[in-house]
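Hi everyone, sorry if this is the wrong subforum. Our group has a chain we'd like a structural model of before ordering constructs, and none of us has done structure prediction before. Sequence below.
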Amino acid sequence: MTDAAAGRLLVAPEDMLAAGRAVIDAGDREIVVLEVDGELHAFDNACPHQGNPLADGEVLGDVLECAYHGWRFDLATGACLAGAEPVRRYPAERVDGELRIRVEDTA
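Answer:
Right subforum, don't worry. Here is the predicted structure as tokens:
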């Protein structure tokens, strides 16, 4: 589904999150979805440092740490806490047994 003002809506089955994380193919990028304390957090799966997959990272409280070079990102905002550049974060929710992620289109 596409909405010019709001971007694309990605829909995936909720059971993809059985292990608390999932990687979803958005066509032009991958998105990692993490469930932490019942909340969903969705980010580009590529660390802004060197493009390594953030899905391999570790969740430390309210922080996602890249497994490759230790860059740390705030789960709530995507702000970079250790490193130089934030990671793109996307709104995500559960609706009727589905994961829904709003993705802005890139020009």
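For your construct planning: The chain has one domain: 2-103. The two ends are 18 Å apart (CA to CA).
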